[in-house]
């Protein structure tokens, strides 16, 4: 049973305040993840569990990406710019790791800039030898939105959502969860849509996200999640425990 | 023309003082690398140059590896231990990157824990998609000794020297340079041996290194460098400019 859990950048950071971790939210998530890991193995939360975590950039990566004019398609050849984006994301990643480890989750980082590459068409290669071996050894690999070397563009943005999709496919994941600031995909009355099976069903409800985000909002997420083999769930922070316990919080996309 | 340059951990750190960068030595090396890059392209030191840099652990990684009993063969399943080793190496890597970037070398990090894996026999997989693309886009990838996920062992040590050998082979490097604290491989009179073509010629001269080092001394370096297709050079910090200019400082191993 392989699970991919995305922690939205706007959940683990204060997205409107530059480079600010939301420590309380992060700690609560770490506690829920630790509880689920302990339940899954029945032998304490530091025992093996096939869980890979991905987090977004929130107020860390996005500001730097905007400052350097870097998107998923338009890059920079400035090593200074690329390093600014990458180091900001590693700072956030360290906060996530520390919170998870303080709750006995055996989390270790996998930094995508070190791993992947895009060709001139933007297609991504992301060899997951490290991620797979870390999972096999009982660790919880924690990836994140990052920069990525891109043929002809220098370094472009690799979004957390793109990593989630790649992990789900490459690891043949059984379940994918996206923890967002909202309790699910909402209809125009503000209610959670329980199930989405086609984008046409919900296209009229979906706009952009409500704060700075160079990597797209809910519409893009739903479209990519529909393309996965595994069922995906979109839920708020209160849905993490239920998702990791095998339940169906928020919106199921399949 | 692809060049791999190793900066020994004992060159860029004060190896007997825990987690202490040798700022003066590092800055002088960065200046020499910048000068060589500018000369190679004839158009300023931030222009493309096929140079990959690797640095060792010095007083950063080795202390933590010893504390956690981690070697290249014996690992840890403690995420705390593995993260301690990895984060110490990333701190040193950041100092190396900052020094190189301050001299206009377009350096970006590649963290091996994120990339590679060992199987149960200890054989290393290290997919270099990111390193290759960074080189192709004109960046100078900077790798380092690190931890690596190892089947059945958790996380073991991946030495800078092992990375150098892998880079040299996988990138089909033309020249490999190892910048050490000594001006070359020394004979029993303390003189630099100009050329080594077989280990038997020098086996009696080579002992271990003179300070804490979990990853072996000069004897191991010479043996692995002899196995490379590319010529390798062992030299002191004063030999970096000559090496990058195409000369033969110190000891040539081929």
TrEMBL record, chains A, B:
GO terms for molecular function: ATP binding; isopentenyl phosphate kinase activity; kinase activity. InterPro entries: AceGlu_kinase-like_sf (IPR036393), Asp/Glu/Uridylate_kinase (IPR001048), Fosfomycin_R_FomA-type (IPR024192). Its EC number is 2.7.4.26. It catalyses: isopentenyl phosphate + ATP = isopentenyl diphosphate + ADP. Keywords: ATP-binding, Isoprene biosynthesis, Kinase, Nucleotide-binding, Transferase. One of its GO terms (biological process) is isoprenoid biosynthetic process. Substrate binds at residues 57, 62, 160. Gene3D superfamilies: Acetylglutamate kinase-like. It is an enzyme of class 2 (transferase). It holds the Pfam family AA_kinase. Residues 1-226 form the Aspartate/glutamate/uridylate kinase domain. The record marks 15 as: Transition state stabilizer. ATP binds at residues 6-10, 58, 217, 221. Homodimer. Belongs to the isopentenyl phosphate kinase family. Catalyzes the phosphorylation of isopentenyl phosphate (IP) to isopentenyl diphosphate (IPP). Functions in an alternate mevalonate (MVA) pathway leading to IPP, a key precursor for the biosynthesis of isoprenoid compounds such as archaeal membrane lipids. This is Isopentenyl phosphate kinase. It comes from Salinirubrum litoreum.
């Amino acid at each position: 049973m392989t699970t991919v859990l995305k922690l939205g950048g706007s959940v683990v950071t204060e997205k409107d305040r530059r480079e600010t971790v939301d420590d309380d939210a992060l700690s609560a998530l770490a506690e829920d993840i630790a509880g689920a890991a302990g339940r899954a193995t029945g032998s304490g939360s530091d025992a093996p569990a096939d869980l890979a975590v991905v987090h977004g950039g929130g107020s860390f990566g996005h500001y730097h990406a905007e400052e350097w004019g870097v998107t998923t398609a338009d890059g920079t050849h400035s090593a200074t710019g690329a390093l600014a984006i990458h180091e900001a994301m590693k700072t956030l990643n360290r906060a996530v790791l520390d919170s998870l480890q303080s709750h006995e989750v055996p989390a270790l980082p996998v930094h995508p800039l070190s791993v992947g590459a895009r060709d001139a068409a933007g297609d991504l290669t992301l060899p997951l030898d490290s991620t797979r071996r870390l999972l096999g050894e009982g660790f919880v690999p924690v990836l994140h939105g990052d920069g990525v070397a891109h043929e002809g563009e220098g370094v472009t943005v690799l979004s957390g959502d793109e990593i989630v999709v790649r992990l789900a496919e490459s690891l043949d994941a059984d379940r994918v969860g996206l923890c967002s600031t909202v309790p699910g995909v909402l209809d125009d009355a503000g209610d959670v849509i329980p199930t989405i099976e086609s984008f046409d069903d919900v296209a009229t409800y979906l706009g952009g996200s409500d704060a700075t985000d160079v990597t797209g909002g809910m519409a893009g997420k739903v479209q990519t999640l529909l393309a996965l083999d595994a069922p995906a769930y979109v839920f708020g922070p209160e849905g993490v425990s239920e998702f990791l316990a095998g339940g169906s919080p928020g919106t199921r996309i399949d």
